[in-house]
Amino acid sequence: MVLAQLGGSISRALQQMSNATIIDEKVLNECLNEITRALLQADVQFKLVRDMTTNIKKIVNLEDLAAGHNKRRIIQQAVFNELCKILDPGKPSFTLKKGKPSVVMFVGLQGSGKTTTCTKYAYHHQKKGWKPALVCADTFRAGAFDQLKQNATKAKIPFYGSYTESDPVKIAVDGVETFKKENCDLIIVDTSGRHKQEAALFEEMRQVSEATKPDLVIFVMDSSIGQAAFDQAQAFRQSVAVGAVIVTKMDGHAKGGGALSAVAATKSPVIFIGTGEHMDEFEVFDVKPFVSRLLGMGDLSGLVNKIQDVVPMDQQPELLQKLSEGQFTLRIMYEQFQNMLKMGPLGQVFSMLPGFSSEMMPQGREKESQAKFKRYMTMMDSMTDEELDSTNPKIMTESRIMRIARGSGRLVHEVMEMLEEYKRLAKIFSKMKGLRIPKKGDMSSLSRNMNAQNMSKVLPPQMLKQMGGMGGLQNLMKQFGSTKDMMGMFGGGGE
C-alpha cells in the first residue's frame, strides 16, 4: 500500500466508526483492525503496529466516544500521537557546526540511492553557505566513482576518489585529509552498499569508520524495501554508530512504513527524505507533517514551503488585493497553474492537502492532469488581455470561444470545459472578498487577520468535512501555529 492509499484507508476506517450509532469496544476494535491492516500493508513492522494499537486502546476513553465527542478526531489524534512517538527516538541527531571540519559517513543497502543522496546532502548544505566535499570510498561497485564524479561535477562540489587504489580505507583517509587541508567544513564519505548477510563488507565499513572517525554516520534506506527495513537497519546499527537516517524514493506513490521501522531499529531520527531523482528533490524531515501526510491529514507547512519556492514575494500584494476585491481572473488562474506545475509531482502536492490524497491523483494520472493544465494554458495563450483580465464570464461569447479554439488548435467543447473550471475556481475565491488586507500586503500579515470562521468559508466543503468540521479546522490551525499555512494553498507565499 502506497503512502497516499494509507491515508485513504485510515480515513475510511475512521469514517465507518464515526457513522456507528453505538460506539463500544467491538466497534473500536474493528476500526483499529482496519488501521492495523493498512499500516502493515504500508510496511510498518508488525511489532510496532501491535504495540501502537495496544497503546491506543489504553488511551482512548470509550465513554467519550459513546458520548458523541468528535469520535473520528479522538481516534485520529491517538493514532497521530503514537506514530509521532515511534518516529521520535528521543534524541536529536548530531548538529553540524561551522568553524571546524565535520566528517559525515554514509552507509546503506545496495540500490538505496546512497551515492545520489550523498550529493543531495552536500548540495543542500552548499546552498546554506557550507563548503562541502565528497569522498568516494566505494571500491566494490563498478562505476561508483564515475557516478559520484558526475553528480559532484554537476553540483560544482569538489570530490576525491581513485581508479587504481583498491583499499577503501586508504581512499577515505586520504580524501578526508585532503579536504581538511583545503578548509572544507563538511566532508562526506560514501561507502560501499551492502546487505546484512555480507560480513566482509560490514567489516570494511567498520574499518572506514574507525579510520576516519566520522562525527555522524547516516544510514540511507530505500522506502520500498518493505518489512525487511527493520532487520536491515538493525544490522547496520549493530556494526556502526548510526546517528541519523535518510529515507529515499519517497515520491507521491511511495510506501512510508519503512521509515518508522528504520527509526525504531536504529534509535536515530530521520533527518531528510528524498522525493525524486533531481538534486533539489530533497526535503528536511519533520515528524508531525510526515505523520500528518501518512494519515491523509495533509502537510500544510510543507505545501507552504513549496509555494514559497515558486511564488515571488513581490507578486503577493497585488494578488491579495485582487482576491480581496473578489477579482479572480483567467490570468490569475493561468499563473496559479504555472505555480502548480513548478511544485513537483501533483500527487505529492495533493497528499499535502488535508482531506485529499494521491488516491485522487492515481498513478499514471499525474501526467494526464499536468497535460490538462498545459492544455488550458495553451487555450489562454490565445486570449486577448481583455479576456484574461475580465471578471465577467459573459464576455466569452460564442464567436470568442470559436476563435480561441481555432487559435489554440483545440475543440470548442475543450474551451468550454476550461471555462467551467475557471467558474468553479472563481466561486471558491469569491469567498475571500471583503477580507481586510494589511498595509504590509503579504500572506503572513493577512494570516493574522484570519480565523477559523473565515477559513471555513474559503475551504471546499469536502476538505472541511475531512478535517472534522469546524472543530477539526481549529485544532489543525493550532497545530500549525497560524493560518498562513492554510492560506498558502490558495496561491500565496509565506515569510
Secondary structure tally, helices = 25
Mean of all residue-level pLDDT scores: 76
Query: Oligomerization state of this entry?
Result: single chain
Rounded to an integer, what's the Rg over CA atoms? 25 Å
Which structural class fits the helix and strand makeup? alpha/beta
Please describe what this structure looks like.
This protein is of the alpha/beta class and 495 residues long. The protein has 25 helices and 8 strands. The chain has an 8-stranded mixed sheet with strand order 3-2-4-1-5-6-7-8, sandwiched between helices. Helix 1 (3-19) runs antiparallel to helix 2 (25-41) and helix 2 runs antiparallel to helix 3. The two termini are 36 Å apart. InterPro entries: AAA+_ATPase, P-loop_NTPase, Signal_recog_part_SRP54_M_sf, Signal_recog_particl_SRP54_hlx, Signal_recog_particle_SRP54_M, SRP/SRP_N, SRP54, SRP54_euk.
Give me some keywords for this one.
flat; eight-stranded mixed β-sheet; alpha/beta; 25 helices; 495 residues; disordered C terminus; 8 strands
Helices, strands, pairings?
Layout lengths: L2 H17 L5 H17 L4 H14 L2 H5 L4 H17 L14 E7 L5 H14 L4 E5 L7 H12 L3 E2 L7 H14 L4 E5 L8 H14 L3 E7 L6 H11 L2 E7 L8 H10 L3 E5 L7 E3 L2 H8 L5 H11 L5 H9 L5 H13 L3 H5 L15 H16 L3 H5 L8 H11 L3 H18 L13 H5 L4 H7 L2 H6 L2 H12 L3 H5 L7
Helix pairs in contact: 1-2, 1-5, 2-3, 3-5, 5-12, 6-7, 8-9, 10-11, 15-17, 17-19, 19-20, 22-24
